[in-house]
Amino acid sequence: MVESPHYLECVFLFTSISTQLIVCLERYIATIHPMRARAWCCRKTALKAVAIAWALAGIFAIPYLLHHEVVYRGKEGPDGFCTNVSSTQSWWLIFKFVEFIQYFVCPCSIIFIVYSRIAAVLWATNPVGIKSENSR
Q1: How confident is the model at residue 126 (pLDDT cuts 50, 70, 90)?
Q2: What does the alpha-carbon distance between residue 42 and residue 63 come to, in Å, rounded to a whole number?
Q3: Whose CA is closest to 106, among 7, 12, 24, 11?
Q4: Which of 31, 41, 102, 118 is found 20 to 30 A from 83 (Cα to Cα)?
Q5: Contact at 8 Å (CB) between 22 and 50?
């Protein structure tokens, strides 16, 4: 039971990051490819993407569920605390590195690139009602 809060915390965190990435990509499609957005950005596609995000987050967070337990300093009693019993093992450090890449570096990079592309396209176009020099 003590493992559940850590597991759920990670599932919610990973799902939040994935959902933010989904929203970012949806905005990119709607802005850069408006004609394709009608086919790609529909309720069915959004539900699939969010379901996949939840499933992957739930799967990737399983080590948190399996490797947290209550540790006691002496006899069982009120001085127990919840800890990750695998935190010093090399596989856990590799897992945390992969987690860092998968849920921080990659999403931040993708969001930065996508919003930079959106900004470049929007800033390169003329606002409605303002004539360009070629149209004069």
Answers
A1: low
A2: 34
A3: 24
A4: 102
A5: yes
Q: How is residue 120 written in tokens?
A: 């470049």
**125: three-class secondary structure by DSSP:** coil
Tell me the residue type at 66. Answer: L
pTM assigned to the model: 0.77
From its phi and psi, is residue 33 left (phi > 0), alpha (psi between -120 and 50) or beta? beta
Tokens 């800033």 — which residue?
123
pLDDT digits (tens, 9 = 90+) for 33-55: 888 888 888 899 999 999 999 99
8-state DSSP, 128: T
Q: Name the DSSP class of 70.
A: E
Token pair listed for 66? 């399996």
